[in-house]
Amino acid sequence: MKNSAKTNTIEVQTNIISPNLTHSVIEETAKGIALYYKDGQFICQTFFTQPIVGEINMLEGLETDADVHIRSIQLIGPNLFHIRVMGDKPMVETMLKDINFYNILRGISTTLSTEVRSRRYLETTSQKEGWNCIISLDQEKYNLLNEVRLEKQNIRIDNLLILGDRLIGLTHDHRVVEGHLTPDILLHRDQRMDVTLLDNVNKLGRVSLLSKVPNSEISFLVTVNNTIYQFDVWGEMLHLNTLDESVNQINSVTFNHTRSILATTNGLYEIDVQELPNMVKATSMPRQIINEHLKQDFRLALYVDDPYIKGMGPQLGIFAKTVNDQVMFF
Questions:
Q1: Are 259 and 272 within 8 A, CB to CB?
Q2: Torsions phi, psi for 244 (to 5 deg)
Q3: Measuring CA to CA, how many Å separate 14 from each of 28, 47, 69, 95, 203?
């Protein structure tokens, strides 16, 4: 991408998802930019026209006030999903009881593979609460995992990760906790999981982010200020990487198979990586993506390897969302 003062504006197209889930509808839904639930209907948004390659494309028209915004869909077991959403709890539960939701999940599951490990979507709302759902397609049952018990007290946790049968999350005061998933969590919807503190992690200080290691069910990433630490589920540190001092906080860490992109309070950074058994190893120093439009506070950055865009070659790009919910693609 050239360091240009120019930007391009691109509109999104909005389509109601037909209950008749043909192959083309499933493909569009799986590879859409945004997926949400509004007024009892499931809706996806896609690019209306192709973005201009080599320029920053500012997105306009993304939904800002759906009843439920879906953020990611991840297959974690046979017909078992971890779904991240944004919305008020009553509307989230209304969506999770809608039979069309389970049909859409069945369709999206056919597009997942070892190369495409999850479906991630953009949302442009900072006003709604985040929820993490575990969903069984076989039983058509769900549970919300954010409400747990710590030291005999009912609390809420956020930024949840599911690693094998472990649940990792953050308390309101930014401490890392761990719980154990069992089938009972689907049988008893009001049951709160017991969690414990991961003291080896929490001694680092105020944790701002938890993130998955893409090829591991036993390790995860923790960010504290401008440093990324990799831990296993037993609390042992594997290694760390530090960004430059101009970064106060890292807000997201995501991967493709050869690189990691970091959204920070001072723009976007990339690190070359190598996927090893149960861990990811950095093979380069962190480098900032230099462009005058990108030197700002970013909440999220995502690679596009499995194409949201058809007809572009190579089918690779980056979505980035600022703390003001402005979305760009380049």
A1: yes
A2: -70, 170
A3: 11, 9, 14, 19, 46
Look up residue 118 and give its amino acid: S
User: What is the spatial distance between Cα 303 and Cα 234, in angstroms, rounded to a whole number?
Assistant: 30
Q: What is d(CA 63, CA 15) in angstroms, rounded to the nearest whole number? A: 12
Q: What are phi and psi of 155, to 5 degrees?
A: -140, 170
Q: What DSSP assignment string belongs to 116-177?
A: S-EEE-----SSSPEEEEEEETTTTEEEE-SEEEETTEEEE-EEEEEETTEEEEE-TTS-EE
- For residue 167, what pLDDT is reported? 96
Phi, psi of 31 (to 5 degrees): -100, 15
Question: What are 121-162's pLDDT values in tens digits?
Answer: 999 887 899 999 999 999 999 999 999 999 999 999 999 999
pLDDT digits (tens, 9 = 90+) for 59-94: 999 999 999 999 999 999 989 999 999 999 999 999
CA distance 261 to 312: 21
In whole angstroms, what is the distance from residue 10 CA to residue 275 CA?
Answer: 34
